[in-house]
Amino acid sequence: MADCTHRNGTRGYSHSCKTHRIEGISGRLNGRMAGDISRPADGEHMKRLILGSLTAMAVIAVLATTGVSGQGKVDSLGVMAADGSVPALGSFKVPKTPWGEPDLQGTYNANDLQGIPMQRAQTVGTRYRLSDDEFNQRVAQRDQNVANDNSDEFSLERAEEFEKRFGTVGGAVSPPPHWLERARSVSRVSSYVIDPPDGRIPALTPAAQAAVQERQQAQAARRKQLNGIEADWTTDRSNYDRCISTGVLNSITPKIYNSGSRIVQGQGWLAFQNEMIHETRVIPTDGRKQVGSGVQNWMGTSVGHWEGDVLVVETRNIKPESPINGQPLSDQGVLTERFTLSDPNTLDYRMTINDPKVYAAPWTLRLPIPREDSYGYFEYGCHEGNYSMPNLLAGSRAEEKRRAEAAARGEKTPDYVEPARGGGAGRGGAAGGGRGNN
């Protein structure tokens, strides 16, 4: 497993760095090797271009001879009904396992769901299907992302320039942009949220709104306290930065890569594995009762039962540090997840979030995830940040030493100014904590 750490100044960062498979560049056979960070000299560039093309042709030949046992499509009737509506849950007759339970097993790749927002644009209204103009805008955005990813302008030396132009992806704390996976086929689905019918997430309760403000104020105060130092301790970085967990929902939604999910079943059990941050939930399907609230973890506790061809899973006891769509669930929060197939090659995954202390009403989202049995599903070798946490903390200590030496010479460190995009928060926002707040 190669190391995915990229350094710039005092910052060090690591994404998953799974094996750089051909699929890891979303089939964009652009001639750049996956581990090539800066552009090589012309002769070497041509050599790599040729080698990359030969490798790609070899992989294509293997796939052509082995065949693909299952391949979903973003425009199938299991994704969207012919009239542009959401297919009825459980309308497809799912094949059975040898022991008689619905067989949901397979590998599913959510890459082609990129571009779908969590909640619907208000201009779309209650439409589940994008208009041609809206769809073309999404396609243009995908094409622009691919062009940015493949730009020969990128180099580590210009990473901060790229971050200003294109956002965090491609910046100094991100992998080189040509590693990223983009949608091959663009979906017409207007939003993940399907209920309420307008695809909009219900309002937060007054108490939840106040809690959001308190968290934001605490994070801003912590950044001011750090005064531009990236971190005093690991807890100043997000769970995502530290490769701990992205939580129940964010482990399923598509990312810049590692968007695979896999289902394996046994009699009375189902294992749901998410490629991003190596999550595996082993869910009993025999209808047993939930465990008590004294047990909490990053992905909660899940128990399931079958309702026809639909596996209904109740998930509770999620740690507050593991939010759902940015909001920690309260002690009354419960996720009701539903798993089934909406056609032979589409996993119909739905989640209803019900927490009366956080939201004014329950709401439901849906991910129609295409099956892709040929998808290269590999270990997520992040290991709590690999080298990023030691590098980041070492850089912070070095900056503190530099400041102390400057102060001894009578030089003053400029006061921290909060940038518009936040700062020092990592991928998931500053945890606000660290040793300095203990």
Ordered list of secondary-structure elements with their pairings:
Blueprint: E1 5-8, E2 11-14, H1 42-66, E3 106-109, H2 132-149, H3 159-166, E4 193-195, H4 206-226, H5 247-250, E5 260-266, E6 269-274, E7 279-284, E8 301-307, E9 310-316, E10 334-343, E11 346-354, E12 363-370, H6 388-408
Antiparallel strand pairs: 1-2, 3-5, 4-12, 5-6, 6-7, 8-9, 9-10, 10-11, 11-12
Folded structure, characterized:
By secondary structure, the protein is α+β, with helices and mostly antiparallel strands. The chain folds into two domains: 108 residues, no CATH class; 310 residues, no CATH class. Helices cover 22% and strands 17% of the residues. The strands form three sheets. Strands 4-12-11-10-9-8 form a six-stranded antiparallel sheet, with no helix packed on it. Strands 3-5-6-7 form a four-stranded antiparallel sheet, with no helix packed on it. A two-stranded antiparallel ribbon has the order 1-2. A hairpin with a 2-residue loop joins strand 8 and strand 9. The radius of gyration is 23 Å and the shape is globular. The N terminus and C terminus are likely disordered.
E-strand count: 12
- Principal-axis shape equals globular
Could you give the order of strands across the largest sheet?
4-12-11-10-9-8
> What would you report as the Rg, rounded to the nearest angstrom?
23 Å
The N- and C-terminal alpha carbons lie at a distance of 36 Å
| pLDDT averaged residue by residue | 81
> What percentage of the residues does DSSP assign to strands (E)?
15-25%
Structural domain tally: 2
